[in-house]
Write a structure and sequence with these properties.
The chain is α+β, with helices and mostly antiparallel strands. The protein contains five helices and five strands; from the N terminus they run αβββαβαβαα. α1 runs parallel beside α5 and α2 packs across α5.
Length: 123
């Protein structure tokens, strides 16, 4: 199991800036603080619909690049309890979900964080 202190690179409760992008909305956000080894993230975009679309795109591009994630559908109202800045223009949205259980996962956390930033950035 990956130690919580190591996972903080990926799941820090504060937004993680995307490279040197000056856009304050171009960050990766954690859905909720992980309790065990499940981490759910999404890009910090204003609209729920844009978040869901970007996560759907990232799911595909990550798979094409060899990174296997899952999708979680979350109700926007529930997500806004911890992220009130999300504009609720959709009833539900997709976020990315990852399970980090194997000791080998600890060895790729920095790379995973960079890949998530890249793919959630879109484009």
């Amino acid at each position: 199991m990956v130690e919580a202190g190591v996972v903080v690179v990926v799941v820090a409760p504060v937004p993680v800036p995307v490279d040197d992008d000056p856009d304050p909305l171009a960050v990766v956000v954690v859905v909720v603080a992980p309790e065990l080894d499940i981490v759910c993230v999404f890009p910090r975009l204003e609209r729920a619909s844009a978040i869901g679309e970007r996560c759907e795109q990232a799911f595909g591009s990550l798979a094409h690049a060899g990174w296997h994630t899952a999708k979680l559908t979350a109700e926007t109202a529930w997500l806004r309890r911890s992220h009130p800045w999300i504009e609720p223009d959709a009833e539900a949205l997709t976020v990315l979900r990852m399970v980090l259980m194997k000791p080998a996962h600890a060895d790729v956390l920095d790379e995973l964080a960079a890949v998530l930033r890249q793919h959630l950035r879109g484009g």
